[in-house]
Amino acid sequence: MHTPSIHALIAAILFSLTSGEAPAATAIFLGGGGNYGGTIDAPDAGDPNNSGIATVVLLDTGKATAQLVWQSLTYRFKGSFEPGATATEGALAKTLRKKGVDGVELVLTFALHTDTRTIDGTLAERPVGGSPTLTTTFTLSGEVPDPALSAQLAPGIRTSFIDPISGGAGAPIPGDGFSVISLGSTAKRSGRFVGRLPDFEAAFSAGSPLRKATYAVRSGIYKRTAARPPGGQLLGRATVGDSGGSVADMLAELRWHKNQNATTTAYPNAFDNRVFLDAREYPSGQRLAPIGLQNIRNNATIRFRDGNVGADISVPFTMNFLGAFFQAPNGNRIKVSMNPRAGRFSGTFTHPGTGERTRFAGALQAAFGVVPGDGRGSFLSRNRNDASQSRSGSVRITVNQ
Fold this sequence. Notes:
There is one protein chain. The protein is mainly beta and about 400 residues long. It folds into three domains: about 20-140, Lipocalin (Beta Barrel), CATH 2.40.128; about 145-280, Beta Barrel (Porin); about 300-400, Porin, CATH 2.40.160. It has helices at about 5-20, 145-150, and strands at about 35-40, 50-60, 65-70, 75-80, 80-85, 90-95, 105-115, 120-125, 135-140, 155-160, 165, 170-175, 175-185, 190-195, 205-210, 215-220, 230-240, 250-260, 270-280, 300-305, 315-320, 325, 335-340, 345-350, 355-365, 375-380, 390-400. The strands form five sheets. An eight-stranded antiparallel sheet has the order 15-14-13-10-19-18-17-16, with no helix packed on it. Strands 22-21-20-27-26-25-24-23 form an eight-stranded antiparallel sheet, with no helix packed on it. The longest helix is centred in the N-terminal third of the chain and has 13 residues, at about 5-20. Residues about 1-25 have low confidence and may be disordered.
C-alpha cells in the first residue's frame, strides 16, 4: 500500500481548502491533537459518587485513546472522532458496559472544538435498551498556558495547609491536613499532588499535566478490597494563580467525600466536604527548613492538640541542619524527622491516653517576609476497644523568636 508523504498530505489539504471542498477526515483535526482532561463533578445536592475524571489523548488524525474514572471505577477505550459541521468540530460516541452491574450501560458522547481546544462531554447511565436514568455533562481542556503565566511556572515545590473541618453528621475532624505540590520541568509542567486530609487516614496522591491554567486532581482514598472500589475520593481542579511575584501560586477547591462503607478506623459516617488549597512557593534544597528559625537552642515548639490527648502537649526543641533535638525529660518520647528538601516532616510520640506510639505527619511552609513559617499536620488516636472514640488531632510546629 502506498502511503502519501506529509508534503503530499499538506498539499491536498491546501487544495481542498482553496477549491472549496471539505478536507479529508484524517486531516480535519490538524492542530487539535493533544492531551485533554478534566473533572466530572456532581452537584452538591447530588450523589458525590457520581463524580470522576476523564482524559482523552487525541491524534491529529482523529484517533483517540480515552480513560474514564466514574463512581471510582476505571474504563479505558479507543475510538475515532468523525468530522463535524465545521472544520473545527468533531464527534465521538461510545457505549460501555457498566462494571459490576448487569444490564446497565454507560453512553458517552464527546464534541471536539479545535478552535478552543476543548471537548464537551455527556455521560448517560441507562438500562440496556431503555432510557437514561442519570445524565451528567463535563468539559475537557487541552489548552496550554499563556506565555505570561508560563514564565511563573518554575519547577519546584508549593506547600499548602488544609484547615480542620466538620463533617459526617456534624462530627468535627480536627486534624491539620496538608498538600505538597511538585511541579516538573518547565517543558512538561506536570504536577504531582501528595498529602493527607485532616483525619490522617486519607492519604492522597495524584498526578496531572497542566491544561491551560488548571490541573485536574483525582485520588481514590481509604482502603479498598478486591470486591470494592476505594471508600472515597478527593476530586477537583487546582488553578495556577498570579501571585504578583516571580513564581505562581496554586489555588484549589477540592471535593472530599467518604462513603458509608469505607474501611476506616475513625469517623465511620459518610460525608461530602469541600477543602481548599492555597499553596505557595517552598524554597527547597536547604538543609535547614526555611521557616525562619534562629540558630539558637529551643528555636521551635511542637504542639499536639485534640485526638484524645487531653490537655495540649507543648514542648520546645532545637532544630538545625543535623536534625531535631529534645532536652530531657522528653516525657512523651517525641521524635521528629525533617525533610526540608521535600517540605515535609513526620515522627512519633507516646500518646498520653493510650500509651501507644502514635505516628504523625505534616508539611512546612516557608517564612513570608517578616512572618515566620510553620509546620502543620495530623495524627490519629486509635481506641482499640471502642472505634467510635478514635479521633484525629493536630500537630503544629512554630518558630520561637
